[in-house]
Input
Amino acid sequence: MDSQKKSLKVLKKIYEATHDRLIDETVKRFGRLDILINNAAIPGKAGSDPNSMEGYDAIMNVNVRAIYRLIQLATPHLEKTKGSIVNITSDLSERPMPRSMPYSISKAALNHLTRNFARSLAEKNIRVNAVGAGLTETDFITRMGMPKEAIAHIFTEVTKTIPLQRASNADEQAEMIVNIASPTNTYMTGSIVFNDGGIRIAN
Output
């Protein structure tokens, strides 16, 4: 498969009804499934308190439940190709986040989901790992509806606590994902690899 010649547009919002279609359309378009990267996540529900039950349900539904379902659907196809699954977790999976406790909780759950699936899918020769991304320059936080000034303040304050003294960029996280998902990386499974600028060792 030449990935430069074929592409499939995936919507940012992944709903229950689209899970089956997402996998089916991918296999139909490319003829096979080699890698599943679970990157869809929300930090909260726009217009609601992320720490409310409404916020909790919204976050857990996308950040954990949807991933669980997608892995179930992808497994038969990945077994045929001896494929790989990479879940995108966060440094906040190991640190509290008072502004959005459900987000931190969801990422901790995703870490254990990764380990559980790694154990259960090993007999099918499917590797399951996760990348623990640190502060990254994307529009992820803006989706919470926070003012730009507040977001800039958060970046400034968090950056001070990162040993490398800066946020990462999307390319740096993508490079890590590619390395872990690579077919040459044949012996790694059940690992949570943090790409966080060292923030976990500083806090």
